């Protein structure tokens, strides 16, 4: 066991405890410094893509409602992230199977 302890760094003795704890506190405050731009800039970056309504979405039965797609038949308001044509088509084909083959004029009317 003495060989194992020989490679371990000794912990501060009671006379050096105050100095050691000051050094540890200084290291901790340096790591979590709120004024540091490197730690705060990454947390505020948003990678979400904001899609805009396109007039062709009416062929799937969706209209624009405050930058979110609103399905006309069931009045379901989907989030903006669902405003991709593939997701709109999937809602039409899975939830409203009977309206899948309707043309654009049906939804306009």
From TrEMBL:
<feature type="region of interest" description="Disordered">
    <location>
        <begin position="25"/>
        <end position="48"/>
    </location>
</feature>
<protein>
    <submittedName>
        <fullName>Zinc finger BED domain-containing protein 5</fullName>
    </submittedName>
</protein>
